[in-house]
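Appendix B, example 12.
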Amino acid sequence: MKKLLSLLLAAAMAVSALTGCSGDNNSSAGNAGDEVTGTVVLKVAHNMDFVTIPDAVLAAGERLNAKYASEGRDLKIEFETDYSSIDWTEYHNNVIFAQKNGEGPDIFSLDSDVAGFVKANMLLDISDMMTEDFVDGIFTPFMVDGKAYGMPFDLPVRVIYYNKAALKTIGWSDEQIAALPQQMASGEFTWEQFLALCAEVQSKGAAEWGLAHRPGAGNDFLDVMMTLGGEYISEDGKLVFDSEGLQRFFQEIYDNANVTKITPTNLSQMGWPTINKMVGDGTAFAYYGPIYSATYVAGAVEKTPEQFAEDVGFAVFPASQYNSQPFCIAAPQGMGINANTQYPEICKDLFRELYSGESIGQLSHHADTIFTLSSVKAANEMEDIKTNPILKEVGYMADLSISEPNVEGFTTFVTEMHKQIVLLELGQTTPEQAVADLKTQVEINLDADIVVYK
């Protein structure tokens, strides 16, 4: 799979008629403005595990073909697909390399470096597709200089997992357990109260650990920092180094592992299989991360989605003494249209068919498959999502979701932050020293003009 793009390039040299961006299809457009006719072949490239995203595009193509036929239009869409599961940086570079060789895809998955694709002249401006069909703000990660360059296909939110059986063990009633998510969403039950609950569950023997998190670097940690009033993105889309917010966050990380001891000191050395199992079997009472991770967590303990939903509940990040607004961060997956495609309007027709045509159900199917809400409001009202044992309880999270812009230097910041988290949990540094050391690394690795220090 890792070499699939290279193989496609070789194949395309022999059969150049199969590429939409640079080859000749069995179609004709004539002079500019003339209607495309005949058969057009669009190359669709996708990366990572779930192929329900590109499959939705292909299904939309089938519906469009039927529509064209009913209208008596001489036009048929066919597809060449390239599905891979490789590192995103490698994928990004492969797509740009393919384009430089005249074999770039017409429609392709986007990584976090949307600006890099725009700089390489690889993305079509699709700002005209930002309609009220979508959840508010969902295009934000795909915006560059005020223009939209990608369509969001889902609404994966990062949330708090908690074990309902553990709450029952410490004496909570079914009514109290059922009410907790809304209490956290309304601000009635705070972050400070939740941490105290984690400690109570652990002290009463209902779980071995109170709170777990991902083992490696990731944006999940920033949700806790934001809960504690920390800032990391400025209003004009720059990376922020918030010393006071980082101090609070690092202090809490240190305390959780070394004072209240609700988090294992060696959590970052455990690995995903162990942590997924901890969350799935209740060894850890609570965990924070993407809701779609429920697929992996349930699989780690061989539970069906129905069984998992019986045992585990989900909540947004609640208010705290430093932040009065409950929230959840969304990190939508999306696809873009190659700015060099011969068929920009056909590609846009495919996207429109997905968010406003009869193919909306393909987006709800994708969301149902990976346990996430949809980027399109109408899809969130469909049976796939409304009957999903996990999603049917979290629809309200779409209204509390925040989609953040892609920020230069963000990956470096998050990576260096995690190095300090590891040391803090092991008790090998202090929160004050962690802030100082992180600042030093940021100053060394990032240009001063892309970071706001406060």
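DSSP finds 18 helices and 16 strands in the chain. The radius of gyration is 24 Å.
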